[in-house]
Give the backbone structure.
Amino acid sequence: MNFRIVILAAGKGTRMRSDIPKTLTPIGGKPILQYLYESVVASGLNGDPIVVTGPERVRLCDAFGGSCEYAVQEEQLGTGHAVLASRDTVGEADALIVLYGDHPFISSQTIRALAHRHQERGNTITLMTARVPNFEGWRCVFARWGRMFRGADGHISRVVQYKDATDAERDITEVDPALYCFETSWLWENLPRLKNENAQREYYLTDLIEMAAAQGKPLSSIDVAPEEVIGINTQEEREIAEAVLAKRYA
């Protein structure tokens, strides 16, 4: 199976309160995006990831010496819109793995495991999920993430974003890092069908989960350690990531 990998990095990162593009913020002396880029290359699936950028395209290109392919999301209209912006650059591929430039700790082994599960099961969508006992302490970084819903059969049926969730739904402790592998033919057919009827008025990639489930398409997940899927959107989350990194190499 032919895989391509897209890294979404077009967000402005205003909550970081920094002049540096969020994905170039240093963690342990190295830009956030560089960690993920190295894991993608080490995975052996596709050594030439596509980075979806916004206004900071030139700075991102300079940081990586032009070693990535780039697609530009001219307007930030959500993650679904960002992936759609990469379509012409992706070209021919059986499956597309979507990652985020502000997740530094995704390992090459996990990327390979996602691809293996996708191919082994013949899935339309394969997801990474993470489970936490609570949202206390350092796990507060997951408190505002989307929640995974499973039916009585244990299969994933949908993802609800925190801002759109009820109090009861927010008590769910299986969270969605929004790291997926898609069958590309199905993806390109269904991405244009996304609607922005939500609190953010954005086109959520996560809405494809419910769409695939409603169509009876096969999907499944792999469990990933919470520490591996930490995202960095604020200086407080950067400090937590620094602490996790220090613990790894203690």
